[in-house]
Design brief:
Elements lengths: L1 H21 L10 H30 L7 H21 L1 H8 L10 H30 L37 E2 L15 E14 L5 E8 L13 E5 L3 E8 L8 E2 L3 E2 L8 E7 L4 E6 L12 H4 L3 E7 L7 E2 L2 E14 L1 H8 L13 E4 L4 H5 L17 E3 L3 E8 L5 E5 L4 E6 L2 E9 L1 E4 L4 E7 L15 E7 L2 H4 L11 E7 L1
Parallel strand pairs: 2-5, 4-10, 12-15, 14-22
Antiparallel strand pairs: 1-4, 2-3, 5-8, 6-7, 9-10, 11-12, 12-13, 15-20, 16-19, 16-21, 17-18, 17-20, 21-22
Bound molecules: copper (II) ion (CU).
The site of copper (II) ion has 3 residues, from loops.
């Protein structure tokens, strides 16, 4: 805006100065021509800046959501040229009085003089503004107008400097068991029906980022299987579906399968299979877990902390989880936060009772991966799409949904750099208008659904056209930051990417 004001003040000033000189106008102690132009234009600059700012404010109020940037730019150019011309012409009598201006010919009347100067200024300013704003459009062709004037005003918008980004997520096929499913696109709405799930309670060593193998328990989707990425099996259903789960306990001690307020298998003896059936609850994100070895406060349930947890997604019946200011969510991600304690793993390996006083998690993971393993996940493999499920990515104009679930016993705080996310559900409670946050607090066992809009921060003046932009996401919890000693090698770290 300062650039445009400069161009208009000095360019338009040139036009006026040329005409006044040509008709033989004079001031007392007139300086040389070029210097005169420069001085007059500099005097006009504050007026021009105010006029350009006023034009901008005027347009911002009326800028339609979703409009292309070219129209606002053209309107801005035209209006700025007009307001600057009129303001400078209005200030001319002041200028004339101060510097003793004499026109060469007959002195025109005030109104005639004003109109003439404004018209002259406009003739010079319009082409300048047109060129200036064409350059603006050329270097920034993305539709920034869509960032303004949300249909539903978020509570924190007025207070935030940055605009809001959409969140993308790993899409689950609706009404299927998405065992480790990753970045699928959202499925079409499905009929309510039956979802059959088979789970096995297994155990074994899981490799950490530093090569250390930690003994873990897991719900997996095949006998004898162990998921190295440790997110657990994601059960995906549509609200109202009948979900039938068969849980086989292959271990030497009882385990259970439970979702608070929905289902509880009770203890499943070693070698036994329990069959439970329940109606998929209201749309949202749920944590299932082994509820055994759990004190009164379920945060510290030992069997869950040893790895026996997973996520149930209940999709809305219309298949549309939400939208971000009218822009539909195109992908979903599931982030399961877990804390991994090698000491507890050894006690479980030795079939000893867990000594809860020895809980000392050395790894904090998202979908089983910590540190740079989650920031730079393995290349997307069609056979294992979940291997890229920690880094939401999408194009400008797209929105993604991240379903965050905290399976740890500690509070975590996911800080999204680059933009805000909109929290649309907290522990099953839908927030109709959402709450915009750049740090999402996750208490133990919390489930929060957030929308991430893929939009550049407003302070990125000219986003690159042909390369992806990466923004970090990191956990602010000190436990996670310094886990295992050091800075984040074993902590929760991730990111998101705007693709070209
Ligand atoms: Cu931060």
């Amino acid at each position: 805006m300062l650039g445009l004001a400069l161009a208009l003040a000095y360019g338009g000033g040139l036009a006026l100065n040329v005409v006044h000189t040509a008709e033989g106008g004079h001031e007392r102690n007139e300086p040389p021509w070029v210097l005169h132009w420069f001085l007059d234009a500099s005097l006009a600059l504050p007026v021009a800046v105010m006029a350009v700012l006023a034009s901008s404010a005027l347009l911002r109020l009326r800028r339609p959501v979703g409009a292309d940037f070219r129209r606002p730019a053209a309107a801005f150019a035209g209006l700025s040229a007009l307001t600057v011309s009129v303001s400078v012409a209005l200030s001319a009598p002041l200028h004339a009085a101060a510097f003793g201006v004499r026109h060469g010919g007959e002195e025109p009347g005030f109104i005639a003089h004003l109109l003439r100067d404004a018209a002259l200024g406009l003739a010079g300013n319009l082409p300048i503004a047109a060129v200036f704003c064409s350059i603006l459009v050329l270097i920034r062709p993305r539709p920034i107008a869509a960032r303004a004037a949300p249909a539903v005003p978020p509570t924190s918008r007025a207070a935030t400097r940055r605009d809001f980004l959409k969140v993308g997520g790993a899409g689950m096929a609706v009404a299927t068991v998405a065992a480790g499913a990753g970045l699928a696109r959202l499925a079409e709405p499905a009929e309510a029906g039956q979802v059959d799930v088979a789970l096995w309670v297994n155990q074994g060593d899981v490799a950490m980022i530093d090569g250390v193998k930690v003994f873990r328990w897991q719900f997996t989707d095949a006998p004898g299987k162990l998921d190295q990425d440790g997110r657990g099996v994601v059960i995906s259903a549509v609200a109202g579906d009948t979900v039938a789960v068969a849980v086989t306990n292959t271990l030497d001690e009882p385990h259970s399968f439970a979702i608070d307020g929905v289902v509880d298998s009770g203890p499943i003896a070693p070698g036994q299979t329990a069959r439970v059936s329940f109606e998929a609850p209201a749309p949202g994100t749920y944590l299932y877990r082994d509820r055994l070895n759990e004190p009164a406060n379920p945060w510290f349930g030992a069997n869950r902390l040893l790895g026996l947890y997973g996520v149930l997604i209940s999709h809305p019946t219309d298949g549309k989880p939400s939208s971000f200011e009218g822009r539909p969510v195109v992908a979903e991600f599931v982030w399961v936060m877990s804390s991994i304690c090698p000491a507890w793993g050894e006690q479980a390996r030795a079939n000893r009772a867990i000594d809860t006083r020895t809980f000392d998690p050395r790894y904090f993971t998202i979908n089983g991966r910590s540190g740079t393993r989650a920031v730079h996940p393995p290349p997307l493999d069609p056979a294992h799409p979940h291997l890229n499920d920690t880094v939401p990515h999408g194009r400008v104009g797209e929105t993604a949904l991240i379903r965050m679930v905290n399976a740890t016993a500690s509070t975590h705080a996911a800080h999204f750099h680059g933009n805000h996310v909109r929290v649309i559900a907290v522990n099953g409670l839908a927030l109709p208008h959402g709450i915009d946050k750049d740090v999402v607090l996750m208490e133990p066992m919390d489930r929060k659904d957030v929308l991430l809009p893929f939009e550049f921060p407003l302070d990125v003046a000219a986003p690159p056209q042909d390369e992806p932009w990466h923004f970090p996401m990191h956990c602010h919890s000190e436990l996670s930051q310094s886990a295992g000693g050091g800075l984040y090698p074993s902590g929760m770290l991730s990111g998101w990417v705007i693709e070209p």
